[in-house]
Amino acid sequence: MIERALVIGAGISGMQAALDIANSGYEVLLVEKEPTIGGHMAQLSETFPTLDCSSCILTPRMVEVGQHTNIRRLMLSQVTSVEGEAGNFQVKILRHPRYVIEDKCIACGACAKVCPVKVPSEFERGMAERSAIYMPFPQAVPAIYHLDRDVCEDCGKCAEKCPAQAIDYDMQPETLEIGVGAIIVATGYELYDGEAVQAYGYGSHPDVLNGLEFERLLSASGPTGGDVIRPSDGKVPKELVFIQCAGSRNPEHGMPYCSKVCCMYTAKQAILYKHRVHDGQVYSFYMDVRAGGKGYEEFVTRAMEEDRTLYIRGRVSKVFAQNGKLIVWGADTLTDQKIEIAADMVVVASAIVPSAGARQVAEMLDIEVDQFGFYVPSNEEMTPVESRVPGVFLAGVGLGPRDIPETVAQASGAAAKALALFGAAKAGVQ
Ligand code: SF4
Ligand code: SF4
Q1: Model's pTM, two decimal places?
Q2: Does 46 share its domain with 57?
């Protein structure tokens, strides 16, 4: 038994699993394809239903992961092959170069200031710019800059300015080969951006945002400092339309499943918008409200009653721009009336889909995925965090849409399974 775990993905789910295992005295290799840990939770403004500041509750966990002596973080990395069996897997991990020497960078930012390249920031969902050499966000862990060679113009200015001589343009990829006893897969999710949301103007009109983009607008650390303004002209939107189930529960577009968190984050975003724009009006088109969690129903009621969000049961047929407004055509299926709203901004609660690369991870590990690409446990009811491969456990939204508490609980469940495997070997139990 190799008493070391591999965790693939360093969002909240992978971080939680890594911490549980590390705190039990075992080594963890935490592999993440991005330059920082934190995942999508780092992009959220507040969480539901408590309205806690997301980064305030996430950042201490990130720091703990960053400082834990039992956790080895491998950023900008991907697992390329896995062989062996429970207790003795041999894995290969490809580490892409950061072009910044980790031990030397002091995160002073002098390099980014002189970098002439400006590209849309992935973390800010394109609503702010970053340099070719950058840190995704100020609380990133590790707090080390990353040089994106895909957009770098090789001008050499960053290396000239770096006071720590931390920049190494010649850094090469490296492959690590290491043994682990258990593997936890926590690869997370993306938001659907296909035809079903494009029909609402997403991708073609700057004032049609998806849920994560609106989170960044609401966030005090976001591109506008938490002011809700229209990307197109900087005006405060006074009429805001949410379209729930944008892609979800839509067999026509191949996503008949419920994305589970959209009803709740829409209610949260409606409340937070009203905190910022007191005289604004929110409309929310919904199919039916699914608020199945502790305090969730009351939270939606608060959005409806205290913040006067007008919930319209029905579907939107079309969104189009006209005279500086976004005209939303829909139908109220309760009153059987056609609805037209002249909105300033539209937010689509896009379907949750598995992260890019999840299928590849599944193939590599021989774990099952469903027709949508979500991982399938060996038994949905009785072994919800165990894959069909002994020693390979599953956690987080890669299994299907779920909220943060469920994600954290399942990550702890997956960690407990890995620890049980280590413990059984110690006790001599087969
Ligand atoms: S070498 Fe690349 S990263 Fe450095 S300043 Fe020039 S463009 Fe920016
Ligand atoms: S690479 Fe150099 S200039 Fe850039 S943040 Fe690190 S220490 Fe500062």
Answers
A1: 0.95
A2: yes
